[in-house]
Automatic annotation (TrEMBL):
GO molecular function terms listed in the Swiss-Prot or TrEMBL record: polyprenyldihydroxybenzoate methyltransferase activity
UniProt KW Methyltransferase keyword: yes
GO biological process: methylation
PANTHER family found in the cross-reference section: JUVENILE HORMONE ACID O-METHYLTRANSFERASE, METHYLTRANSFERASE
Keyword annotations from UniProtKB, A to Z: Methyltransferase, Transferase
Name of the protein in its database record: Methyltransferase domain-containing protein
Pfam family, one: Methyltransf_31
Phylogenetic placement of the source organism: Bacteria, Pseudomonadati, Thermodesulfobacteriota, Desulfuromonadia, Geobacterales
Residues in Methyltransferase domain copies: 38-155
């Protein structure tokens, strides 16, 4: 049975937003650091529109294969249309169920997915682990202090952003601090050879790039509007907040960053 959970960022252009903001050079470097290599079988959990899965399909050649899985029927349809091939396939799955029915893989990857599942993060990682062969690698990548690090905005906007994120935590199971938890997930599952990298994901200053404008505007248009926060300091409510955010974000003086944490470990061999 498919989960009936609703995805916080769901909107008509979500597949395009995810596709645009995915930088294959960055994800490829992260995956190679984690241990992805030619000949491996790899599962991309929460694959979205499939861009990363397809890139993995190339990195594991010769001899490897890549499978992308996601909750979303829309995302899987987009992925199959744009990225399916002889070595890359996609399947819609309920990720709240163990994934071992898909077989077991040499390498499992989950990036920017757990942040939407605050109350069930560890359960999801346990299910992912079921899809990893003994001796295989699980790599978790997510953000920390998500959407909260800006400078150059007004005090009321800073308060509104913080309050919006708090509302998303309560009302939409959003976890802005999941990145710092990834190590403990692998540790508690008994993974070995655990390693962690911390860096900057969003690092936005100067003239605004089109992809950043589209990505962040959609975040505010969709997530902030759905958060349930009332924007009480704004006489015009959400619409006035949105106008101020757009003005702030278009200003080249603005500085925005988000920490990204990557954690990889090796599943113990069966005793």
């Amino acid at each position: 049975m498919q989960s009936d959970r609703k995805y916080l960022m769901e909107h008509a252009e979500e597949s395009l937003r995810l596709d645009m903001k995915t930088d294959n050079a960055v994800t490829g470097e992260q995956a190679r650091w984690a241990g992805l290599a030619p000949g491996m079988s790899v599962i991309d959990i929460g694959c979205g529109p499939g861009k990363t899965t397809a890139m993995f399909g190339e990195l594991v050649q010769p001899g490897g294969r890549a499978v992308g899985v996601d909750f979303s029927e829309e995302r899987i349809a987009y992925a199959q249309e744009h990225y399916g091939s002889d070595t890359v396939s996609f399947e819609r799955c309920d990720l709240y169920q163990p994934l071992n029915y898909l077989g077991q893989f040499d390498f499992a990857w989950c990036r920017f997915f757990l942040e939407y599942h605050l109350s069930n993060c560890f359960q999801l990682v346990q299910n992912m682990s079921e899809a990893v062969k003994p001796g295989g690698i699980l790599c978790l990548v997510d953000l920390d202090y998500n959407c909260l690090s800006h400078f150059g905005h007004s005090p009321r906007m800073e308060r509104a952003v913080a309050a919006t994120i708090r509302s998303l935590e309560v009302n939409d199971d959003f976890d802005p601090y999941v990145g710092r938890k990834l190590y403990s997930f692998l540790y508690d599952l008994g993974y070995e050879e655990i390693d962690v990298q911390v860096g900057a994901h969003h690092q936005i200053f100067g003239e605004l790039k089109q992809v950043d404008e589209f990505n962040w505007t959609k975040k505010v248009e969709v997530a902030a509007k759905r958060s349930g926060y009332g924007f009480d300091e704004y006489a015009g409510g959400y619409e006035e907040f949105l106008e101020e955010f757009r003005s702030f974000f278009a200003n080249p003086r603005r500085f925005t960053y988000t920490p990204i944490i990557s954690c990889r470990g090796r599943k113990p061999q069966a005793s």
